[in-house]
Amino acid sequence: MEKIEDIRKRNNSAFLSIKEDGAALKLDQSLPSLNLVLYGGRGSGKTSVAKAILGQTDLLSASSSSECVRNQGEMCGRWVSVVEMPALNGKPQQEKMKESFRCISLCEPEGVHAFILVLPVGPLTDEAQEELQTIQDTFSSRVNNNTMILFTTDSDPKHPDVIKCLKKDKNIKELIKRCGKRYLVVNSSDRKQFSKVIDFVGKREQSCYTSGNLFEGYLDKLQQKEEKIARLQSQLSKLLPQTGFSGRYLKKYFAYILSIILFLSLKIIYNTEMYNLIVKKVSSLTCL
Ligand SMILES: Nc1nc2c(ncn2[C@@H]2O[C@H](COP(=O)(O)OP(=O)(O)OP(=O)(O)O)[C@@H](O)[C@H]2O)c(=O)[nH]1
Ligand SMILES: [Mg+2]
């Protein structure tokens, strides 16, 4: 296993998967290849989905390396690359950036056709929502048109309970809306159902998300930060003359500070025994 890990690192986390049953690849040369990125919370089923799409049972998971892992194979006559992205939520910003670059570089030169949020049907976890937010923040809003959700279930995707869960749950409805209402439901144990993913993504005429989009997103962020700094600097330069130790304001501030010092010292003196003694002496003298 250690040797496989070394080979994986030398090969930039990229693999070519051969079908378990040894069946020959039936590639249709007229169909362009597809690059898919699977993301989601820890243990949400990303590796299981990659295995189902590629017809492989022995794939490396991103969680075991905590880095993006690419596996490739054939489905529906197409050459398909599946990148499993480890859960990014909660990682330091630098780590998220590093992983986003690694993810995009594994999909070059075409770019990513779809970022697929893998989610088991059921009550929505905070982790799934946070992961979507993290992807949208890390890859910028340019990623939105390429996002979709893949719900997995052990039962029939058309089962009333499944439909009820997706149509009635307020949080799930909101999540679907944030992904442009693009979603599919598949039975996780039926590999054939995963061809729906390839059909769905293959039919979309949406342009791919590329490394150019990622750089533009980071440049936007830099520009926003620069604008914020410029705004703060201008606010500060407006405030400085009011707080500076010069002119009218200086006299006002000094007068104010002096009066506080005077008041406090008078209070201390009035409360001291010495003062009481002096008062007693003076009053006895005046009585004479
Ligand atoms: N019942 C059920 N179990 C599933 C389903 N999908 C995945 N699992 C199980 O959930 C566990 C985690 O699945 P993985 O595919 O490893 O999940 P992952 O998102 O790759 O996990 P990490 O890489 O560790 O984040 C495994 O034991 C799977 O067998 C599903 O649709 N139904
Ligand atoms: Mg995994």
UniProtKB/TrEMBL annotation:
- Can you tell me which family this protein belongs to? Belongs to the TRAFAC class TrmE-Era-EngA-EngB-Septin-like GTPase superfamily. AIG1/Toc34/Toc159-like paraseptin GTPase family. IAN subfamily.
Describe the location of the AIG1-type G domain by residue ranges.
31-227
SUPFAM superfamilies per the UniProt record, alphabetical: P-loop containing nucleoside triphosphate hydrolases
Which terms does the record give in the GO molecular function aspect? Answer: GTP binding
Q: What is this protein called?
A: AIG1-type G domain-containing protein
Which keywords accompany this UniProt record? GTP-binding, Membrane, Nucleotide-binding, Transmembrane, Transmembrane helix
Q: Which Gene3D superfamilies match?
A: P-loop containing nucleotide triphosphate hydrolases (3.40.50.300)
Any stretches that span the bilayer, and where are they? 253-270
| Superkingdom as given in the UniProt entry | Eukaryota
Note the InterPro entries from the entry.
Answer: G_AIG1, GIMA/IAN/Toc, P-loop_NTPase
